[in-house]
Amino acid sequence: MSKSALGEYNSSGAKKCKVILTPLAETDWEQFIKDNQEAFNYGAMEEFGMRDDHFEEDGQIISRETIERSIDGGEAYRIICDGHPVGGVIIRVEGNKGDLDILFVSPRVHSKGIGYATWCEIEKLHPEVTIWETVTPYFEKRNIHFYVNRCGFHIVEFFNSHHPDPNDPDAKPGEPDDQFSDGMFRFEKRI
Fold first, then answer.
1. Cα–Cα–Cα angle for 146, 111, 36, nearest 5°?
2. Do the Cβ atoms of 4 and 20 come closer than 8 Å?
3. What is the pLDDT of residues 63-110, one digit of tens each?
4. What global pTM score does this model have?
5. Residue 38, number of CB atoms within 10 A of its CB
6. Are 153 and 147 in contact (CB under 8 A)?
7. What is the Cα–Cα distance from 72 to 75, expressed in whole angstroms?
8. Which residues have C-beta within 8 Å of that of residue 113, sequence separation ≥ 6?
9. Residue 19 belongs to a domain with what CATH number?
């Protein structure tokens, strides 16, 4: 599949933009990683300012290694609007279960419905999936609003030092997560 139309979104009464989901080309990995890191850093800097200490690697909330591992293990797509990349998404699907590893939209086009249009089409791309999961740090209020209020997810678990993520090989009971010591929410959507 080369391209999948994601529908249109209303950008605050402005003209509608056709959003396209395009499989990530290997030649675009570098820019995809940079754009992903920019979007994730933006959310943390909005919440914590320059005092943010949630970095996986020097100056980055999400490391190159984490993104590359996610790309290698899933389906990666560029979100294109009016011919320009405006974000990206990485999902993994096994049978009727889907995991949203990464979804990011450039801060320059936040609040224009691009993320929601992307999510709706991800569901259309994989109608066999009846349970979707994702996680986000406790401080990402935009993400929590987006997943719960816009996309219909429910918070089903809170990973923290007293309840570590069982799928995190580095998690140790009683010890805070090195990156998100205050915890991560796990979201689930049943269709």
1. 75
2. yes
3. 888 899 999 999 999 999 989 999 999 999 999 999 999 999 998 888
4. 0.79
5. 15
6. yes
7. 8
8. 9, 10, 11
9. 3.40.630.30
